[in-house]
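In the design runs reported in the main text, the only information available to the sequence generator was the tokenized backbone. The following block is the verbatim input for one such run; it is reproduced so that readers can re-run the procedure and compare outputs position by position.
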């Protein structure tokens, strides 16, 4: 992947916003300092970064795709109230692929786990 200043600032913005933002969110943040950047440019660069494994593209959380700079194995918790997305370490379900294979015989190439509920902040409201 060739160097691109726009891609670099998009990645930095993603890393600075650990809320698993959407492209629209990143675009809104960038418009303050980069008024000429288009939403299409943000989408294109996020998709390139995801295709090269630099970031993760998280689909199925809600209507919009979210992006994650953390490429280590982990799961997500989505708050049903505030819609924030939180990381959960993968060690909460150790050996899940092996155990699933042993029980089903399925050949597993990867997995994604999303938890839904209320985050601590929303529970305390």
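Verbatim output:
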């Amino acid at each position: 992947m060739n160097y691109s200043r726009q891609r670099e600032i998009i990645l930095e913005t993603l890393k600075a916003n650990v809320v698993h933002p959407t492209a629209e969110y990143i675009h809104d943040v960038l418009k303050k300092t980069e008024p000429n950047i288009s939403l299409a440019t943000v989408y294109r660069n996020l998709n390139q970064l995801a295709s090269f494994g630099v970031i993760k593209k998280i689909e199925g959380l809600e209507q919009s795709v979210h992006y994650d700079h953390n490429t280590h194995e982990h799961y997500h918790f989505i708050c049903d109230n505030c819609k924030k997305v939180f990381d959960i370490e993968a060690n909460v379900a150790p050996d899940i692929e092996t155990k699933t294979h042993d029980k089903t015989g399925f050949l597993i190439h990867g997995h994604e786990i999303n938890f839904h509920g209320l985050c601590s902040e929303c529970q305390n409201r």
